[in-house]
């Protein structure tokens, strides 16, 4: 009886160790899966405009530009900032009809961000990537335009804009919209209350894109604004920024912990099973 109790305790201990290992592995797996999903979405987006004719892509771009022009004609004086920018759909399903249109891609090499941009900031859109704040311009570039792109911060398996606070003046980010590529350089960083919208309005003679996320993480009482001013787009600059921040290597290394921990988990399971089988055989031989 005493021996059986010891064996039960040993089994419980080993199961507990496996559970702890699984809990430790979960955030790594979910983050890697989110990265995989995001890249699949971006690949589909790129394939779509690659397969479309130049005329078709131009028509889409003109449609966005026309919406911006009409907005200017209304002499917009306010923008509504959502009260809480960190709601996640409880069912976890990113319904296509709730996602709406995928407008483009935003790349921020400094903080290893490469996200799809959706037309809006509902819970489903912000769960799948970044979104254009309703009431602000599409990021088409052009004098007098001011687009505000928002994304989550502080979600364990979805870093998105969590590291936005690490950006400094002079850092660059890049936008792709219907195949047209734009570049922006950070010229201002500011924290505001959700009721303060003045910094999100268009500025005459300027072409701005502002990146926005909740801050501080977990509290979400304020909004962090990282504004970029338009600069000439050069492919060499993009490649230089990617290389400088080692974006591709970082992305690949996200898989290394999964492989290592996964192998360790398999080995641990095999060892435990062998020990349990050996002990049972030993007990039978004693009987």
From TrEMBL:
Polar residues bias spans: 76-93
Alphabetized UniProt keyword annotations: Hydrolase, Membrane, Plasmid, Transmembrane, Transmembrane helix
Active site: 152, 214
Highest taxon in the source lineage: Bacteria
Residues passing through the membrane, by range: 255-273
Pfam families reported for this sequence: Sortase
Gene Ontology MF terms in the entry: hydrolase activity
The protein's name: Peptidase C60
SUPFAM superfamilies xrefs: Sortase
């Amino acid at each position: 009886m005493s021996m059986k109790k010891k064996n039960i305790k040993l089994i419980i201990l080993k199961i507990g160790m496996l559970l702890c290992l699984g809990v430790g592995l979960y955030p790594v797996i979910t983050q890697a899966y989110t990265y995989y999903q995001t890249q699949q979405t971006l690949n589909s987006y790129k394939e779509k405009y690659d397969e479309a004719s130049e005329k078709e892509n131009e028509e889409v771009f003109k449609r966005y530009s026309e919406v911006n022009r009409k907005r200017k004609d209304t002499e917009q004086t306010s923008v509504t900032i959502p009260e809480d920018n960190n709601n996640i759909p409880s069912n976890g399903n990113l319904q296509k009809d709730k996602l709406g249109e995928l407008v483009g891609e935003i790349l921020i090499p400094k903080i290893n961000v490469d996200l799809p941009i959706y037309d809006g900031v509902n819970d489903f859109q912000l769960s799948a990537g970044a979104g254009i704040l309703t009431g602000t311009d599409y990021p088409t570039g052009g004098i007098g335009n001011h687009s505000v792109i928002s994304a989550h911060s502080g979600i364990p398996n979805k870093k998105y804009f969590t590291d936005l606070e690490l950006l400094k003046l002079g850092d660059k980010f890049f936008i792709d919209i219907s195949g047209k590529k734009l570049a922006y350089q950070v010229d201002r960083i500011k924290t505001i209350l959700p009721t303060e919208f003045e910094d999100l309005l268009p500025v005459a003679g300027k072409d701005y894109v502002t990146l926005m996320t909740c801050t501080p993480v977990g509290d979400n009482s304020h909004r962090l604004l990282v504004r970029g001013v338009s600069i000439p787009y050069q492919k060499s600059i993009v490649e230089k920024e990617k290389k400088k921040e080692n974006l591709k290597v970082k992305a690949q290394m996200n898989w290394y912990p999964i492989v290592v921990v996964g192998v360790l988990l398999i080995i641990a399971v095999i060892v435990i099973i062998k020990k349990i089988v050996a002990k049972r055989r030993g007990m039978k031989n004693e009987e």
